[in-house]
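Chain A, query sequence.
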Amino acid sequence: MTTSQASPEQRETNRTETVPIIDTDVHERFASIQELLPYMKEPFLSYMEHWTGWGELKYIHPIGGSKLDSLLPNGNVPGSDLGVLQEQLMDKYDIHKAMLTGLFYPATMEAQFELAAALASAYNDWMVEHWLDKDERFLGSIHVAPQIPELAVREIERMADHPRMVQVLLPIGTAAYGDPFYHGIYEAAERKGLVVAMHQGNSVRSPFGQPRYYIEWHTILSQAFMASVVNLIVNGVFDKYPGTRIAMLEGGFSWVPSLMWRMDQNYKSLRLEVPWVKRLPSEYVKEHFRFATQPIEDPDPMHMLKMVELMDSDELLMFSTDYPHWDFDSPLRSLPTSFSKELKRKIFYENAAKFYGLT
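Chain A, predicted structure.
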């Protein structure tokens, strides 16, 4: 078959087959909370006899929360079967490395913070045994309970020496992580050479509270990412810990240029309020932040290229699929056709490899 006769997917494959891919957001899951019990100790092990889940139900996904081919015949949740994930993602798209970010976030618990820390620790041990030890292409995220920062630091120090733990995971929700209350986490991550990954969580709300509809909630998620960027910068995290690196996951990126402009404008007028911030906020963004691509909006491809140009850097974006979620971004189709081969290579591989220090 000639190129002119090839299907769109085959033509796209021809353009990307020589580009290695680092997927910065893959959601591994357990089939049941029972899988964590072997990694828990008393008194928290006894708590789990009464586990009823996270409690309040927020949304029933109107079209299902996962891509249809990830649904498992045995009824287990998508992302919980190692072999299926390897087949559908790692092997199908020849993923070089995948950052495992889970879908179990004790960091968002609103009470019993010691239990949250125990759950995070158990999840880390479970993830190492059932995922990292099974496939060298997987890279891990250290789950912590930031509600008690000293316990989060202890967990970072416990797990950081694993050769494929590359980041600390902090779900974005209602916590203002730039607050000095959390600064010990950045000190520990910097000291251990780890990225801090911030991923959207179910506790995200709009300025009006809990949105009435899922479509409303999903649309305004970028507001939480914008607020987090500003909060980290103005609270002096990067002046205090200059080696801090922040990966923003599952928040998109089209909002980044306008936020940099707005921060810089306000800083020029109001910097006396935050004298510890020594540079324009946009400079902190370019040096300390990277943004995973998913979910990519789908406007005119030239508009998306212009959006990257407006960032004034081709190093801020890292590719992610968000497997196995319903809005999965395929490596074959998701990057706009207006992106050059060189830009795609940076997004697919080089930016993440450099940011995470991968060889």
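The two ends are 37 Å apart (CA to CA). The first strand starts at residue 21 and ends at 26.
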